[in-house]
């Protein structure tokens, strides 16, 4: 994750191919998996669904909306690719892996999914997801668009999901795992199980997409801070592992994000992640940081940005130091002020933006997309991908 990237990537390739990476992991395969999974499940079960009004009052409302906009953009993109590959009126089957409270349900509705599987480790979150889904299809008109749906709680890092499907032979067109895969990198066994769950039911030519923290960016900031802990008013990362030579699996840190997250997580060494995907027949087609996605789609998807309120209007209509009763730190918007000075209409200038501290948090993340390769079998019945 620093100057030794090449040697670490070689170690990753050997570890994944040999399926014996214990020397690279700080924890034995699965030894502490159930314990950590219980911590993650307990954390997310305790987060209350406080409703839309409470979310609007959040200190990170624009950051949350921005991340949601990123998810919307990439889901729309890959939905379109899937529709191009399938005849009109064909089924569209999706696995929402680690679905949480159902934050992407509206996206699946807009994508006209015909079969949706929602699974999460947190039982309470899953129940809230199911309740939200049922409320979306309460009217008779909405019921006509209602997809087939399955909800079940499971630890995707330790359990095979397809055995829990109503039809274990079902083929999926899209698997989505948003802000969750990194929890599996506690050990090789857990990451391998999670990747198998993402890959094994995907139909050839279709996609596994997701978002997660960018380990390289995290390590870069740790080096710059010269400390085991760094962040700002809304997020903090504190390492609980050797930062000079973090292991491929089990590189643990605690991540705190305002009132939303306060939980142990693990770095994902992306070359290892990519090689693990190849082992299960997934070929990387796209890896992009959030700021790159914003750069490309902020123009074409400006209407969606505005609709989702993914950017804050600055200066606020109620004055530079106030936004809906909240005091604003002018230094957090110095970049907008500098941009305004370059505009001829500076006096009436307003722009959509994130505060510097929110942008610092948003730019921690990346998006990835894999495509399922063609599968054949050798004389021993083992899958061969091409």
Automatic annotation (TrEMBL):
Annotated family: Belongs to the class I-like SAM-binding methyltransferase superfamily. mRNA cap 0 methyltransferase family.
Compartments, record wording: Nucleus
Bias (Polar residues): 18-27
Enzyme class of the recorded protein, top EC level: transferase
InterPro entries in alphabetical order: mRNA_G-N7_MeTrfase_dom (IPR004971), mRNA_G-N7_MeTrfase_euk (IPR016899), RG7MT1 (IPR039753), SAM-dependent_MTases_sf (IPR029063)
Xref: PANTHER family: MRNA CAP GUANINE-N7 METHYLTRANSFERASE, MRNA GUANINE-7- METHYLTRANSFERASE
PROSITE patterns, alphabetized: RNA_CAP0_MT (PS51562)
Catalytically driven reaction(s): a 5'-end (5'-triphosphoguanosine)-ribonucleoside in mRNA + S-adenosyl-L-methionine = a 5'-end (N(7)-methyl 5'-triphosphoguanosine)-ribonucleoside in mRNA + S-adenosyl-L-homocysteine
Main location class: nucleus
Residues marked mRNA cap binding (site): 101, 107, 132, 182, 265, 365
MRNA cap 0 methyltransferase domain residues: 58-373
Annotated segments matching region Disordered: 1-34
EC number: 2.1.1.56
Name of this chain's protein: mRNA cap guanine-N(7) methyltransferase
Keywords: Methyltransferase, mRNA capping, mRNA processing, Nucleus, RNA-binding, S-adenosyl-L-methionine, Transferase
Residues at which S-adenosyl-L-methionine binds: 71, 98, 120, 155, 178, 183
UniProt organism field: Anopheles sinensis
Pfam families hit by this protein: mRNA_G-N7_MeTrfase
């Amino acid at each position: 994750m620093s100057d030794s990237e090449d040697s670490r990537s070689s170690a990753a390739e050997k570890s994944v191919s040999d399926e014996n990476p214990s020397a690279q992991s700080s924890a034995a395969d699965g030894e502490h998996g159930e314990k950590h999974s219980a911590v993650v499940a307990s954390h997310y079960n305790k987060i209350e669904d406080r409703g839309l009004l409470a979310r609007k009052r959040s200190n990170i409302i624009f950051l949350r909306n921005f991340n949601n906009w990123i998810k919307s953009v990439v889901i729309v993109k890959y939905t379109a690719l899937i529709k191009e590959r399938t005849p009109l009126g064909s089924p569209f089957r999706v696995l929402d892996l680690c679905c949480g409270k159902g934050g992407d349900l509206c996206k699946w509705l807009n994508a006209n999914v015909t079969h949706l599987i929602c699974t999460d480790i947190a039982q309470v979150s899953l129940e809230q997801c199911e309740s939200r889904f049922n409320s979306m299809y309460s009217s008779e008109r909405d019921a006509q668009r209602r997809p087939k749906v399955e909800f079940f709680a499971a630890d995707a890092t330790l359990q095979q999901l397809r055995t829990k499907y109503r039809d274990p032979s079902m083929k999926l067109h899209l698997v989505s795992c948003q802000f969750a895969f990194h929890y599996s990198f506690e050990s090789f066994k857990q990451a391998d199980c999670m990747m198998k769950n993402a890959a094994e039911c995907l139909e050839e030519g279709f996609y596994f997409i997701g978002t997660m923290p960018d380990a390289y960016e995290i390590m870069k900031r740790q080096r710059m801070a010269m400390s085991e802990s760094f962040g700002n008013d809304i997020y903090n990362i504190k390492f609980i592992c050797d930062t000079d030579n973090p292991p491929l699996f089990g590189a643990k840190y605690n991540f705190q994000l305002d009132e939303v997250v306060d939980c142990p997580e693990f770095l994902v060494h992306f070359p290892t992640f990519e090689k693990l995907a190849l082992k299960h027949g997934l070929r990387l087609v796209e890896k992009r940081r959030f700021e790159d996605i914003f750069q490309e789609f902020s123009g074409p998807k400006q209407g969606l940005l505005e609709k989702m309120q993914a950017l804050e209007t600055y200066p606020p209509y109620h004055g530079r130091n106030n936004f809906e009763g909240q005091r604003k730190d002018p230094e957090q918007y110095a970049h907008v002020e500098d941009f305004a000075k370059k505009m001829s209409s500076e006096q009436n200038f307003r722009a959509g933006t994130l505060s510097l501290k929110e942008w610092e948090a948003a730019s921690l993340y990346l998006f990835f997309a894999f495509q399922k390769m063609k599968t054949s079998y050798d004389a021993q019945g083992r899958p061969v991908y091409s």
